């Protein structure tokens, strides 16, 4: 495995993650960690993160390298010493063609991010989707109405199910919970909108009489159909902005009726 960094990647790693002295390279990512404190096998974690990247490349048919010249650099930040953000996030520098995933280390999230086996994979199952969303046609920018920024988190929360699955975490449970969010009138989170996206897929791909929950458990493993569904989503929703969580669900349903469906 090629464990060497380009000089730009090396500078970008040191700039963003001075707290991390260890790093592992894979085809599409560089994973940085504090070697004395990291409780897991960094090679194993990096392999599973690469599994997620492989899955995302396949189902989205998107090539990040056209936009980002370098691999995504994932690492931990000591936010007691570094500037915020204190929450996990994906950060980009388009001029340089670099991008990073920031994972906070010493803060209220510490326990969550440090708990094997689900972290940092669970958090990355969302954050790794961001660059794919960004290069997809769904991210429509430079429009008078401001572009499709509102799709970002619902899209990530939707794909988090099969991406968790690709990394060996429970993807079925994630999608079952999103269906429950979509059907719960008191919920107003991005997961609810992700559930609504899943229900659009159910309308098109369910077997005769198949319940939504059963569909969610089956469909999370249907890679080919998810790929087809994503292409349809990119094509049909790229000019349909989502504004706020409250109006998302009604709007999605109306918009779905307005598309040719799959
Ligand atoms: Zn996000």
Quick summary:
The protein is of the alpha/beta class. The protein has helices at 7-16, 42-60, 110-114, 121-127, 129-135, 152-166, 171-182, 190-205, 212-219, 223-237, 245-258, and strands spanning 22-26, 29-33, 72-77, 89-93, 98-104.
Structural descriptors:
49% helix; binds zinc ion; 262 residues; Glutaredoxin; alpha/beta; 11 helices; five-stranded mixed sheet
CATH class of the largest domain: Alpha Beta
Q: For the largest beta sheet, what order do the strands appear in spatially?
A: 1-2-3-5-4
**Overall SS class:** alpha/beta
| Unique ligands | zinc ion
In total, the number of domains comes to 2
How widely separated are the two ends? 41 Å
Describe the structure.
This protein starts with 6 loop residues before the first helix and ends with a helix. The protein is an alpha/beta fold and 262 residues long. The chain has eleven helices and five strands; from the N terminus they run αββαβββααααααααα. It has two domains: 7-135, Glutaredoxin, CATH 3.40.30; 149-257, no CATH class. The mean pLDDT is 88. The protein is globular and about 55 Å long. Bound molecules: zinc ion. Residues 126, 130, 152-153, 156 line the site of zinc ion (ZN).
């Amino acid at each position: 495995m090629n464990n060497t960094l380009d000089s730009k990647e090396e500078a970008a790693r040191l700039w963003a993650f001075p707290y991390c002295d260890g790093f592992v390279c894979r085809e599409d990512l560089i994973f940085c960690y504090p070697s004395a404190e990291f409780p897991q096998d960094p090679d194993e974690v990096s392999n599973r993160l690469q599994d997620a990247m492989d899955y995302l490349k396949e189902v989205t048919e998107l090539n990040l390298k056209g936009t980002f010249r370098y691999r995504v650099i994932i690492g931990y930040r000591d936010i007691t010493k570094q500037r915020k953000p204190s929450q996990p996030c994906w950060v980009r520098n388009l001029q340089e063609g670099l991008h990073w995933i920031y994972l906070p280390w010493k803060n209220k999230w510490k326990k969550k991010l440090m708990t094997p086996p689900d972290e940092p994979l669970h958090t990355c199952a969302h954050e790794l989707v961001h660059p794919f969303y960004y290069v997809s046609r769904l991210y429509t920018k430079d429009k008078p109405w401001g572009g499709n920024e509102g799709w970002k988190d619902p899209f990530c929360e939707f794909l988090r199910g099969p991406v968790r699955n690709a990394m060996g975490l429970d993807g079925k449970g994630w999608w079952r919970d999103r269906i429950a969010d979509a059907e719960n009138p008191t919920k107003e989170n991005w997961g609810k909108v992700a559930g609504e996206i899943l229900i659009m897929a159910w309308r098109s791909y369910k077997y005769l009489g198949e319940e939504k929950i059963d569909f969610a458990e089956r469909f999370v493993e249907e890679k080919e159909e998810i790929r087809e569904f994503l292409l349809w989503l990119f094509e049909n929703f790229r000019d349909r902005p989502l504004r706020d969580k409250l109006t998302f669900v009604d709007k999605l349903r109306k918009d779905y009726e307005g598309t040719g469906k799959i």
